Structure to design on (587 residues):
């Protein structure tokens, strides 16, 4: 009996068999070179960070971003209040794996961190700042803000033992609590990692660390499995480089700091072992006559957008978007890109959001091109590479990959009081179909829906699920559904961005009379907006379900059902692949 396959399955099969011109074969699944091929190392595919200096932004704000690209991680958020501490008070230190996702039936992740107590207690300072955090700390009361990207390191310096007391999540929480400036936050994290060790669940990591005046690249690595606190040696090796105020930078899961000059104290900071450890591990030879290069020593990545078949396209694509005048091509080795660059034009918030939603449109790396995107131009097929007939193939790893837990943009705005100047724009789930919502620093609480939820259990009380619900229905007939999504984003997201100056002014007027009243206003505004957007996205998901039900188009206004229009190129391929014969011509 001849089997008849549903259309959805046919589309998916055709997509998997395709890949377009950008699907470059690889001879070996080396995760360090092509992390989308073969055995995928999710740590090296996790996040994209954009850094914008205050003189490179249109409004003078310092911006950082974080696409929390995991797909299975805990997505919940919390608000930690500021606190005063008495002599003798301690801060307990926990191992908090950034990739952990606990079954909600066993308790929420941030209620169960005590299960992984390291045994280390740190004396509390007299005062700790309040902050909001998800998988990492994002912004504190002083507008110190963070974005994260895993960069990996050479295998020999991994330290997965329990000897290191700090992983990257715990370091960011301490940075939030104790750092009043970006530099202070870096020194907090660096000194703690040196003294108590870094690693366990994490490898090389990069953080964008910002405040209202400046933004830094901070990179940290373990120092090998033999390290112990009793050794008297630093338990981590780290380096930080300041991004010039009129520059922008990116970190797409690749080490970014190159040659360093520690005599320029306004531009570089580092652990005392930054060079010596590389020499000891035979990662750098001072007799070579070459200057020490941080990334080439600790986390080399010798590939390019072109050579990797698009799996390492994000580096080139960022520079292609912000500084096309440089003429950098996709064949440029990723290790050769500058740490930062002055953009051809200053970036506003909308520009940054466009970068975060970028899919390499108009290039050979566009994942919606041809067969890979299917008849409805879906860029979300094959977000990883694949193996076929014993060979590995890469597909483009775009910025707007469809596995984000959430996406953040922080704005530190030094011309206003901290409760008003600090902004975190948060989009739940896939930024392509989600909506960025403002969270002012002056918020005293966050919605309960931000604190709950899990990948494996549908929950209408969890804010994240509203956006996944709409995203799921948008994927079926992407090229049509995305029009409705963009309309919703224009109504809610663009309006919120354009409303910001009005909210700022109202808050400033209130602040001049009563800071408490200003903070209540901001708290109510953010909560009300989040509730309205969440409700709108539940409604959007319902509307998409109705409109594209059964793979037809149901027009609610005319109450008519219309057929989908498939592109000619797809129909020709269908005829050829399935051996379809045309109907006899009528005589």
């Amino acid at each position: 009996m001849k089997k008849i396959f549903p259309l959805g399955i046919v589309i998916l099969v055709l997509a998997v068999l395709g890949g377009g011109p950008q699907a470059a074969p690889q001879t070996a699944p080396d995760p360090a070179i092509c992390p989308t091929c073969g055995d995928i190392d999710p740590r090296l595919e996790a996040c994209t960070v954009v850094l914008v200096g205050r003189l490179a932004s249109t409004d003078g704000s310092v911006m950082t971003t974080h696409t929390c690209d995991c797909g299975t991680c805990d997505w919940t958020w919390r608000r930690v209040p500021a606190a005063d501490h008495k002599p003798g008070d301690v801060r307990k230190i926990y191992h908090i794996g950034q990739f952990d996702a606990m079954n909600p039936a066993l308790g929420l992740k941030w209620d169960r961190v005590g299960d992984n107590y390291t045994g280390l207690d740190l004396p509390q300072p007299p005062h700790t700042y309040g902050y909001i955090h998800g998988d990492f700390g994002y912004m504190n009361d002083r507008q110190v803000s963070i974005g994260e990207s895993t960069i990996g390191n050479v295998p020999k310096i991994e330290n997965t033992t329990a000897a290191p007391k700090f992983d990257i999540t715990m370091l960011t929480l301490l940075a939030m609590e104790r750092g009043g400036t970006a530099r202070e936050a870096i020194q907090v994290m660096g000194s703690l990692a040196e003294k108590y060790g870094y690693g366990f669940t994490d490898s090389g990591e990069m953080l964008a660390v910002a405040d209202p005046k400046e933004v830094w690249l901070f990179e940290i690595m373990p120092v090998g499995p033999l390290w112990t606190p009793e050794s008297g040696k630093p338990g981590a090796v780290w380096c930080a480089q300041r991004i010039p105020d009129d520059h922008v930078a990116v970190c797409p899961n690749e080490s970014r700091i190159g040659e360093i000059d520690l005599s320029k104290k306004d531009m570089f900071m580092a652990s005392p072992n930054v060079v010596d450890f590389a020499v000891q591990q035979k990662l750098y030879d001072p007799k070579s006559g070459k200057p020490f290069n941080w990334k080439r020593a600790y986390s080399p990545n010798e590939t390019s957008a072109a050579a990797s078949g698009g799996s390492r396209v994000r580096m080139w694509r960022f520079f292609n978007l912000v500084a096309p005048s440089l003429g950098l091509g996709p064949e440029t080795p990723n290790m050769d890109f500058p740490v930062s660059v002055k953009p051809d034009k200053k970036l506003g918030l909308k520009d940054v959001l466009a970068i975060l939603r970028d899919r390499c449109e108009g290039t050979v790396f566009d994942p919606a091109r041809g067969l890979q995107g299917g008849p409805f131009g879906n860029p979300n097929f094959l977000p990883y590479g694949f193996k076929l007939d014993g060979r590995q193939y890469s597909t483009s790893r775009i910025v707007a990959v469809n596995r984000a837990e959430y996406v953040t943009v922080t704005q530190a705005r030094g011309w206003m009081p901290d409760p008003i100047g600090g902004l975190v724009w948060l989009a739940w789930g896939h930024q392509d179909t989600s909506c960025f919502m403002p969270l002012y620093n002056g918020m005293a609480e966050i919605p309960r829906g931000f604190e709950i939820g899990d990948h494996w259990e549908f929950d209408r009380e969890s804010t994240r699920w509203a956006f996944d619900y709409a995203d799921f229905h948008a994927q079926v007939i992407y090229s049509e559904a995305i029009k409705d999504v963009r309309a919703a984003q224009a109504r809610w997201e663009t309006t919120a961005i354009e409303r910001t100056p009005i909210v700022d002014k109202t808050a400033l007027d209130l602040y001049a009379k009563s800071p408490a009243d200003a903070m209540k206003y901001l708290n109510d505004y953010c909560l009300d907006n989040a509730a309205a957007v969440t409700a709108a996205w539940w409604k959007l998901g319902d509307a998409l379900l109705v409109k594209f039900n059964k793979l037809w188009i149901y027009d609610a206004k005319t109450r008519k059902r219309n057929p989908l229009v498939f592109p000619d190129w797809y129909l020709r391929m269908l005829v050829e692949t399935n051996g379809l014969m045309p109907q006899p011509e009528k005589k």
